[in-house]
């Protein structure tokens, strides 16, 4: 075999299978990061009085399967010959990969804050986008389990007023705000808990 020989490109079905396998691998890695962050949140909360605790809302991602590709229906979402489908699949892999990297960063940031000197009261409570401390600014919890400050919300709102999570790249709502003790400390900056999709700017 000559060293300059280029490898034969994969046929569309094998290409689809390869990308679909990547979505499975990255989803498993992502879930490991999500679970790791959930454990850290629990650990930070366990010694605090009940009124100072807040719920970490964290959902694991459903793991895709290597289902049989559909080559008969042109519009099928698993048709390897549909270019749009393949583009979406490649984009999905790129986003999952970015979320795994971000997950690692968030967990390391929490670990760093847990041992910070002087100690901070809420090591898990910071904006996941700009890392601003939740003790200094109001930080809201999204339905997808991320924390975001009001400044970053402004940059993530589309023309319809819907906030798109800068980590999940998906529209999301808000389920909670800063813990009670912080609300008490910053009464002027407190806003009501928003309903899904609702944004106060
Ligand atoms: Zn922020
Ligand atoms: Zn999110």
TrEMBL record:
Cite the SMART domains for this sequence: RING
Q: Which UniProt keywords apply?
A: Metal-binding, Zinc, Zinc-finger
Tell me where in this chain the RING-type domain is found.
Answer: 127-168
Q: Which Gene3D superfamilies match?
A: Zinc/RING finger domain, C3HC4 (zinc finger)
InterPro entries found in the cross-reference section: Znf_C3HC4_RING-type, Znf_RING, Znf_RING/FYVE/PHD, Znf_RING_CS
Pfam families xrefs: zf-C3HC4
Asked whether the UniProt record includes Secreted among its keywords, one would answer no
Q: Where is the signal peptide?
A: none
**Name of the protein in question:** RING-type domain-containing protein
Taxonomic source organism: Penicillium chrysogenum
Starting at the broadest rank, the lineage of the source organism is:
Eukaryota, Fungi, Dikarya, Ascomycota, Pezizomycotina
